[in-house]
Design goal:
Layout: H1 18-26, H2 35-48, H3 53-66, H4 72-76, H5 80-87, H6 96-116, H7 119-125, E1 132-133, H8 147-158, H9 166-175, E2 179-180
Parallel strand pairs: 1-2
Helix pairs in contact: 2-3, 2-6, 2-9, 8-9
Length: 207
């Protein structure tokens, strides 16, 4: 069943694309506490670099199959055969650097789990466990990056992650609901903000 098209949504939610609408309505900005989906979204945001999010959404199910359901333990053990298998898979973005980064990030995620419990406690530790809710109006659109995403990006790079520049990290925070940037007029916007400005949250690393 296609999502209703007559609701007021964020401007980026393309009403002509039911897959996009479902992502906006059911997932974007919703607090994620699931390790597997955290790992999935981290790598999908990296795969999006230079492409549209609709392109990645259309390939999402194939990605899940190709990357063993985004099981970080399995992906971390991928060798040359798996790399070539992924490079030959027309259902995903066949970019050597992006595929290599996903495999690398699996290992980095396992090390992060040893250090601080995993991506869930790591990311939520930056914001004290509660989402930053902005309820942005037309005069204050969501930024491409913030001081918070700068800090997390720098820390992730230091931990060995790849394709985690500040812009990618901010999109990741939005996707996982660590930051809720639904426009104030959007039907998915929370009733009131918890924090006004994600760019001013300068919490330190949770580790």
């Amino acid at each position: 069943m296609n999502p209703p098209s007559n609701l007021t949504r964020c401007d980026w939610a393309n009403p002509a694309n039911p897959l996009y609408l479902r992502y906006h309505d059911e997932e974007w900005g919703v607090p994620c506490r699931d390790e597997t989906r955290m790992f999935e979204l981290l790598n999908l945001e990296g795969a999006q670099a230079g492409l549209s999010w609709s392109t990645i959404l259309a390939k999402r199910e194939r990605y899940r199959t190709a990357f063993d359901g985004w099981d970080a333990d399995k992906v971390a053990r991928y060798g040359d055969h798996d790399f070539q298998r992924l490079m030959n898979d027309a259902g995903i973005v066949r970019n050597r650097l992006k595929i290599g980064s996903a495999i690398n990030n699996a290992g980095a995620t396992l090390r992060l789990a040893d250090d601080c419990g995993g991506l869930v406690p790591y990311l939520w530790g930056w914001v004290g466990g509660e989402p930053i809710v902005t309820r942005r109006g037309p005069a204050s659109p969501a930024p491409a990056r913030t001081e918070l995403s700068d800090a997390i990006s720098k820390d992730l790079i230091g931990r060995g992650f790849r394709f985690v520049g500040s812009t990618i990290v901010y999109a990741y925070l939005q996707a996982t609901g660590v930051v809720n940037d639904h426009a104030a007029r959007c039907f998915r916007a929370p009733p009131r903000p918890l924090r006004r400005d994600a760019s001013r949250d300068t919490s330190s690393s949770p580790s």
